[in-house]
Please model this.
Amino acid sequence: MKDKIIALIPARSGSQRLKNKNILKIENKHLIGYSIESAINSKIFDYIFVSTDSKKYANIAKKYGANVPFLRPKKISKSTSPDYEWVNFSLKKLEKKKLFFKYFFILRPTNPFRTAKTIKRAWKLFKKHNSADSLRAVEKSKQHPEKMWKLRNKFIFPFVNKKYQKQPSYNMQSKIFETVYVQNASLEISKTSNLKKYKTITGKNILGFFTKNNEGLDINYFEDLLRAKKLKQKN
Model:
């Protein structure tokens, strides 16, 4: 029997930094449409589901070919709500409809450059590693945590309290630091069993998926939207 895979596309309304970002348009296509179409074109999913708290968003998602059999409750659609809440809610609700899945992807609408090829490449990598609980897209960080600061009562304090050659790290050249990676909006893969076993969407052994070019671009601010529009025009 085939292990079933579901694509989860989170699209809550009420975004604060960029209003209605999930349904903004680039090249006359809603952002959410890019994620749905890349999922459909990858041909690896048994079910493509959009998790939203908005009837308007749901209707747009359905036009692109996604399933939205129910809305996400407002209490787990806040800007501070962890992904675990809506993922767990969605999969349990689908189980009541006799829809069961062994793996799930999270494809965030704020990335219009994740393609079907990206999805298939990530799935191929994940399948190679039996010990992996999940996979997460990352890219090399342009800013290093050893050069970051916290603010307390008008004074700044290093985010990482570390020394090299008896000097605080923030006074050192960045070349001596260990390379660090930052997660991006491209995609995530996980076993559904992690939700029950670890009470997280990731489990413990997280495989890194290194995105290429603009595969990890995340639209959260107006300047991100402008950049994405220019890139789409070039393509």
About this structure: Residues 134 and 206 are 5 Å apart (CA to CA). The first helix runs from residue 31 to 42.
